[in-house]
């Protein structure tokens, strides 16, 4: 009887310790990965993204495009304006939802 209780407590203790160790090992792995230096490919990729970001902020649009790109973009915007009307087509549309004031329709009402 006492032996069974000791074995049960030891299995509970063992599972609690294993969970605690797994959490600590996984946490320390994350910390060590953040502490180490990036590999050269990741560093090059991040450097190129940062470089493109600064260039696009300076030019105010796409980077390293020629006059053909601007011409095609203006033609596309003109075509879209003819199809869908006026407005600024370079911005995301704003949606305004008004409350209906009543209850939501049910399936039987539809």
UniProtKB/TrEMBL annotation:
One of its GO terms (cellular component) is proton-transporting ATP synthase complex. Keywords: CF(0), Hydrogen ion transport, Ion transport, Membrane, Mitochondrion, Mitochondrion inner membrane, Transport. Its main location: mitochondrion. Transmembrane segments: none annotated. It comes from the Eukaryota. One of its GO terms (biological process) is proton motive force-driven ATP synthesis. Signal peptide: none annotated. It is found in: Mitochondrion; Mitochondrion inner membrane. InterPro entries: ATP_synth_f6_mt (IPR008387), ATP_synth_f6_sf_mt (IPR036204). Pfam families: ATP-synt_F6. GO terms for molecular function: proton transmembrane transporter activity. Belongs to the eukaryotic ATPase subunit F6 family. Component of the ATP synthase complex composed at least of ATP5F1A/subunit alpha, ATP5F1B/subunit beta, ATP5MC1/subunit c (homooctomer), MT-ATP6/subunit a, MT-ATP8/subunit 8, ATP5ME/subunit e, ATP5MF/subunit f, ATP5MG/subunit g, ATP5MK/subunit k, ATP5MJ/subunit j, ATP5F1C/subunit gamma, ATP5F1D/subunit delta, ATP5F1E/subunit epsilon, ATP5PF/subunit F6, ATP5PB/subunit b, ATP5PD/subunit d, ATP5PO/subunit OSCP. PANTHER family: ATP SYNTHASE COUPLING FACTOR 6, MITOCHONDRIAL (PTHR12441), ATP SYNTHASE-COUPLING FACTOR 6, MITOCHONDRIAL (PTHR12441:SF10). Subunit F6, of the mitochondrial membrane ATP synthase complex (F(1)F(0) ATP synthase or Complex V) that produces ATP from ADP in the presence of a proton gradient across the membrane which is generated by electron transport complexes of the respiratory chain. ATP synthase complex consist of a soluble F(1) head domain - the catalytic core - and a membrane F(1) domain - the membrane proton channel. These two domains are linked by a central stalk rotating inside the F(1) region and a stationary peripheral stalk. This is ATP synthase-coupling factor 6, mitochondrial. It comes from Dromaius novaehollandiae. The lineage of its organism: Eukaryota, Metazoa, Chordata, Craniata, Vertebrata.
